[in-house]
Amino acid sequence: MNGIDFGSVLNELQKDLKPYDSPESNFVRMPDKGLGEDFLLNTLSGFAKKESQSWKEGKVSGAVYYGDEPLLSFYEKLYHLVSQTNALHPDVWPSIPKFEREIVSMSSSLMHGDDGVRGAVSSGGTESILLAMKTYRDFFRKKRGITEPEIVLPSTAHPSFLKACEYFSIKPVIVGLDENYRADVAMVKELMSGNTVAIVGSMPNFPFGTFDPIEELAEVAEDKKIGMHVDACLGGFMDPFVRDAGYDFPDFDFSVSGVTSISMDTHKYGYAPKGTSVVLYRNGDYFQNQIYATASWQGGIYFTPTLLGSRPGYPIVAAWAAMLLMGRNGYTQEAKKILDAGDYIKKSIEKIPGLKYIGNPLWVIAISSGEFDPYLVWEAMSKRGWMLNGLSNPAGFHIALTHRHTLEDVKEKFVIDLSGAVDSVKKGSVKASSMAPIYGMASVLPKESTDVFLKSVVEWLYSH
Ligand SMILES: Cc1ncc(COP(=O)(O)O)c(C=O)c1O
Q1: pTM here?
Q2: Is 93 among the domain residues?
Q3: Which domain CATH number covers 211?
Q4: Is 229 in the pocket of ligand 1 (CB under 6 A)?
Q5: Which domain holds residue 232?
Q6: Relative to the CA of 277, which ligand 1 atom is closest?
Q7: How far apart are alpha carbons 59 and 47 in whole angstroms?
Q8: If you take atom 16 of ligand 1, which residue's CA is the nearest one?
Q9: What is the pLDDT of residue 445?
Q10: Is 150 left (phi over 0), alpha (psi -120 to 50) or beta?
Q11: Which atom of ligand 1 is nearest to the CA of 267?
Q12: What letter would DSSP give residue 252?
């Protein structure tokens, strides 16, 4: 396909994405006789040992946001107590909606919400975003008869917004960025139409860690009387603490009058185990459009506040416990350590000739170069064991700093390796990786053909 050999790309990916694929160790058919706990625990501990090394050493961007004992053992104890709970049955486990209500109101108070704020706990950032977009679609269909809804979003917004558009038949209208890699407000105004139901801004976005001008975007939304969603999935449990940690930060939450919804992930910088995010609305009129409820099913009364039916109680309990365990002080202290690490890394990048960071980030630092191919630096970093995220337009890579990078020597090692990687690129001793051609291809080929290519890779990943 346009110079890219599918087979050779898969061969390259095989060692990274299917390292355990061998006919002797694959279970493609259920064994007749169960294999026993010892076998299973031994097998799993082998995988766990291998796969935890990189993140434990702080060599992975984002992914594991805390990961230290004794928090992990605490979560294990919680699991033992609540492993059977299901939020679908509030009559059997009324404690679960109590925890959920408290997560929602604690989150709302972090976001300067008043008593009118409503929301729910979803399974992750993507679900929160899907729910918010579906909510705006339905709210404005009922309120204004909009049947061909559009959302306006910056090119840096998370792909889950595009996924929401695909799932719920909403048209995405994508706007470019200003010189600081933030949503271009003039372009937003230009591309709005009578069908626009919401504007999206990120605090921060995933690719460059930059912060969209929420106050300005919200003013446009308020003026047109449409929704304004702030995606704080990545920042929701950092943003409220940035000022207390000694750094400047703009207003972005319910204190800004045009903001109507916010997503914020407890399973990222909230330090809860994976499986929860919070979606908040300024009032119940919006939230009503998120809820599914039927009182006329033969199986009885049925309702779900989110996408799922059965919903494991454990992630909700763990998110609730994480918030109460950390408290505002705990989050502020962690935020300060992470922000200081970001400051150190940005200052160090300024001293490496040819290298630059993108925009004005705080803790997700995107790295690029005007002098050499940044994908080669990314490759040289991966040879040194770093698992960083590739970016395109502009080409580069980022590190999302977490608690793991505040541990002893990690940020210093990152900078030493970065400077060594740049030296080796300048000497011409780095060969392009398997991923660089894919990113290169994505930047030149039409979006439709790269998406089709990627779907084939995903099918390969999920087949024997
Ligand atoms: C800004 C932003 N929004 C949304 C998401 C989606 O979150 P999740 O992966 O939990 O679905 C992410 C994930 O990294 C993100 O960075």
Answers
A1: 0.97
A2: yes
A3: 3.40.640.10
A4: no
A5: 84-323
A6: 10
A7: 18
A8: 206
A9: 77
A10: beta
A11: 10
A12: -
